[in-house]
Amino acid sequence: MSAHRLPGSGPLMVFGGPYSNLEATRALRALATAKGIAPENCICTGDLVAYCARPNDTLAQIREWGCTAIMGNCEESLVAQAIDCGCGFEAGSACDALSIDWYRFASARVTAEEREWVAQLPRQLGFQWNGLDIHVTHGAPSKTNRFLFASSKASSKREELDSTPAHVMLAGHCGIPFGETFDRENGDQGYWLNSGAIGMPANDGTADGWYLLLEPLAERVRASWHRLHYDAHSEQRSMIAEGLDNGYARALTSGLWPSMDVLPAAEREQRGIALQPPALMIEPNH
Q: Does some domain include residue 6?
């Protein structure tokens, strides 16, 4: 089934980072079905395969589901058979050292046929929906693995959004959910929406993943962030059984990242504090 059908009418469910976490992926798929959200209206911002221990089963779940997906840096690396995940971690950092084992594990297990399927995923995706021009990226349009957080400069997000025809940017990569509204030079409002990730907690001291819902309300759209509850202990046991008894395995249940190398100061100060991003109302294009 195609992994890049354009969404139709009705709500959108946006999520990032399945990260080889089968339990989280199953839970989100079940939730989408329960909410009556069509597969093509479920949008993944990439990094299907990463930290956890079930890359093949997770890919199979995504493919069977038929959700809309783009490449993350992990998919780019797998397709290129690169030596590392391409996450953008600083060389010699704790994140860089931790990534060696899980990337080696994932790359050794992904089959040639799965790499071929992943290679067909688009790197960016643009479409019109409910009167909005929407662009889907992993990190940023200029660079797949660019880290942009809530505390990152609004001007950086504005420049990235202005490089596309879009009104709304749906992004991933940084792993922490947030939404931001800013004024653009043409007088319009611009929106940067990061769904967070389902396959690894958001460093907020809870085991939950995160996803984003975009719901049409007359001429406007409501963007709201929601916790994904799933069996994190089961996923943790699968990592340990496969020899991935590491900081990421512990993070699945502690809700705390094993390293904060990539985080700006503002996000470091939020470690262990339960998140609740406020909903945003999105106005239609002028």
A: no
* Segment 12-66, tens digit of pLDDT: 999 999 999 999 999 999 999 999 999 999 999 999 999 999 999 999 999 999 9
Domain assignment of residue 21, yes or no: yes
The HSE-up count of residue 173 (CA atoms within 13 Å, CB side) is: 29
Strand ordering across the sheet containing 132-136: 125-129, 132-136, 168-171, 189-194, 178-183
Q: What is the pTM of this model?
A: 0.94
Asked whether residue 3 is domain-assigned, the answer is no
**Number of independent structural domains in the chain:** 1
CATH code at position 69? 3.60.21.10
- Of the candidates 85, 69, 76, which has an alpha carbon nearest to the alpha carbon of residue 15? 69
Q: Tell me if residue 227 falls in helix, strand or coil.
A: strand
What are the angstrom distances between the C-alpha of 81 and each of 67, 85, 86, 116, 218? Answer: 25, 10, 11, 12, 46
> Which residue range is the domain that position 47 belongs to?
12-282
